[in-house]
Structure formats: structure tokens, C-alpha cells
């Protein structure tokens, strides 16, 4: 028996989509309404309200319920039957798993990019000045669980930093030893640093930009890891046309403009 689903926190947003019957049934011009459920990575949470508002202006008529959590958690819920129409992930791996499992209607669509930074509490009592300090004895690092996309990106960034000039021998091992907690998603990581429950964390640049309670320490370009966000429409969706239209809009010029306002990059 499958474990009970842990439903994510829901943010209900009303957006619109004018769709003709010809798009849905091959003829006519009467408006078609749809109720879409969009599962989105936790790092997208702040942007989704503006995304929905802009979409409502551009294409009025559909009700969208947005649920946010770790991409891996949302993917698992979909695999267990959670009723998502669209899945927006902070990586390409989780959508690809749904495609490979035959649960997606079409291929994954890249719609955004991101980069990584180190954040510290605004007070920065530990006195961190560079990513090298993440390996300093006594520094408390907040991280996320192994399956959360930010962890995979951060692990690669730490490996890259370890090979940079001036970084101590055993940097990656020392960083791992400094990790004091592993959170469910990147928003929970940021919250712990904001509260001063940790000295630092590696997060997305967009999460750092959205917080007024942290300072940012840049990761050198040579060591940074580009994050690539991708989305899929679910095969179980009963409103596939509206779902595809929403994902196409998000990946298009208007959707990109909204995401750029939150610091997201075009997919590369």
C-alpha cells in the first residue's frame, strides 16, 4: 500500500484563458473554461502570483490552483496519483522521470534558468566573507534533502569550488561536515538562515533576491552551476489543451518577462 499523500500548501489564484471551441472541439467560438492545478517548485512560489496575474490579463478565463513544494516531493505525489495538470520543476530530471514513466503528455519544456549564491543572515555573526568560509570550522550550514534539486546543484558547486585556487584541501569534506540540517525544500532552507538558525546556505539567486533578511555572497562564475527549470503537462489531465497553452505562455515572451522580474534567467 502506498504511503498517504502529503498534499502541498495550496495557493489559489484566479487566472484566465480565452479558448475557442475550435481549439477544443474543432469548431464554434464559444468560450471554454478550465480549472488547472499547477504543481510548482518551491523556488517559484514568489513568482507564481505575478505569473498568474499577467496570464489573466493576457488570456482571461481559467481557474488555476498552484501548489508549491520541493520538485522531488511534487513528482512523487504525481506518481502516486495527485491531480496535477502541469508540473513546473526546478530541474529537468524530475519532469523527465515522469515522461519516462509514461505519465506526461509530451516532452518536458524548459522555461527558466537560475544561478546559485551563498546566503548568510543579515547580521552575519559568523563573519562569512567568501564561499571558502563554508568549510571553516564551526560554521553551521543549512542544506536540503538529497532528492531536492538545490542539493544536487549545490553539491556540484561545492565540488567546483574545491578545485578553485585558494580553496583549502578537503573543502568539500569540511563543507559536508558543517551541514547541521537538511530541509524539505529550498524555501525552508532560506527560512532557517533568515531566523539565524544557521550561518549560511547555498540557494538560488532568486531566493536571495526575494529575502530582505539575508546577505548574499557570490559564487565565482567558474564554479557556479546553472539551474535549468522545465515543465510538463500530465497525461492524466482532463484539460490538456488549456494546460499546454499555459505552459507555452510561460515559456514564451510574456511569461519570460514576468519571471525575469524575479531574477530568473531564460532557459539556456
Features:
alpha/beta; D-Maltodextrin-Binding Protein, domain 2; 6-stranded mixed sheet; 10 helices; disordered N terminus
Question: Please, could you describe this protein's structure?
Answer:
The structure is a single chain. This protein has 268 residues and is α/β, with parallel strands linked by helices. The chain has two domains: 138 residues, 3-Layer(aba) Sandwich (D-Maltodextrin-Binding Protein, domain 2); 103 residues, Periplasmic binding protein-like II (D-Maltodextrin-Binding Protein, domain 2). The protein is 35% helix and 23% strand. The chain contains ten helices and eleven strands. The strands form three sheets. It has a six-stranded mixed β-sheet with strand order 1-3-2-4-11-5, with helices on both faces. A three-stranded antiparallel β-sheet has the order 9-6-10. The protein has a two-stranded parallel ribbon with strand order 7-8. α2 packs antiparallel against α10 and α3 runs parallel beside α4. The radius of gyration is 20 Å and the shape is elongated. 44% of the residues are buried.
Amino acid at each position: 500500500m502506498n504511503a498517504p499523500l502529503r498534499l502541498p500548501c495550496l495557493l489559489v489564484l484566479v487566472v484566465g484563458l480565452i479558448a475557442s471551441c475550435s481549439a477544443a472541439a474543432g469548431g464554434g467560438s464559444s468560450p471554454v473554461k478550465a480549472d488547472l492545478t499547477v504543481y510548482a517548485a518551491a523556488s517559484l512560489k514568489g513568482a507564481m502570483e505575478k505569473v498568474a496575474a499577467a496570464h489573466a490579463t493576457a488570456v482571461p478565463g481559467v481557474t488555476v490552483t498552484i501548489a508549491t513544494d520541493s520538485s522531488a516531493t511534487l513528482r512523487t505525489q504525481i506518481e502516486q496519483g495527485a491531480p496535477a495538470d502541469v508540473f513546473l520543476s526546478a530541474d529537468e530530471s524530475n519532469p523527465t522521470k515522469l515522461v519516462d514513466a509514461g505519465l506526461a503528455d509530451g516532452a518536458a519544456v524548459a522555461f527558466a534558468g537560475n544561478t546559485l549564491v551563498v546566503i548568510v543572515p543579515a547580521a552575519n555573526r559568523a563573519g562569512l566573507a567568501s564561499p571558502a568560509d563554508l568549510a571553516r570550522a564551526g560554521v553551521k550550514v543549512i542544506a536540503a534533502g538529497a532528492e531536492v534539486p538545490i542539493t544536487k546543484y549545490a553539491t556540484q558547486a561545492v565540488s567546483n569550488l574545491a578545485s578553485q585556487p585558494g580553496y583549502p584541501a578537503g573543502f568539500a569534506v569540511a563543507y559536508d561536515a558543517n551541514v547541521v540540517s537538511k530541509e524539505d525544500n529550498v524555501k525552508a532552507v532560506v527560512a532557517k538562515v533568515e531566523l539565524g538558525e544557521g550561518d549560511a546556505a547555498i540557494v538560488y539567486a532568486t531566493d536571495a533576491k526575494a529575502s530582505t533578511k539575508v546577505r548574499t555572497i557570490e559564487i565565482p562564475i567558474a564554479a557556479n552551476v546553472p539551474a535549468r527549470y522545465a515543465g510538463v503537462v500530465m497525461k492524466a489531465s482532463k484539460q490538456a489543451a488549456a494546460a499546454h497553452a499555459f505552459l507555452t505562455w510561460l515559456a514564451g515572451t510574456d511569461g519570460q518577462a514576468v519571471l525575469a522580474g524575479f531574477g530568473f534567467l531564460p532557459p539556456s
